[in-house]
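General statements about sequence and structure are easier to judge against a single worked case. For one protein, we set the task of working out the structure tokens from the amino acid sequence alone. The sequence in question and its structure tokens are set out directly beneath this paragraph.
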Amino acid sequence: MVRRSESQFKADDRAYPIRVKFKAHIGGTRMLGLPEYPETWLRRELPKLAWSWGPAQSVGSAATAYYFRSIDDAQRFVAAFPQLELADAIDGPVYTSPAKSGVFGPRP
């Protein structure tokens, strides 16, 4: 039986406690008019193992995931790149959940 190595995406997804997903754009982040590549900022601002990044899955669009070990680092990153759009598909027609349909009712 052939044993396959685990993808870096899966390893990062399990290892890092915080993941922030952004919509991927055709032409990359330079098309958004960012002052620099997000990965350049990360390399300059955070220690090596404090972050990682890679492809992600999202409903209806490609996405990029950035992984962090601390909430503070994730917040700094998001604040540095307000042009990036979260890969949020909760309001889309494909996403289903009892909470979305109101089955659970309002919270007290």
Q: What stands out?
A: Residues 71-80 form the longest helix (10 residues). DSSP finds four helices and three strands in the chain. The helical segments are 8-15, 38-45, 71-80, 98-101. Strands lie at 18-23, 51-58, 61-68.
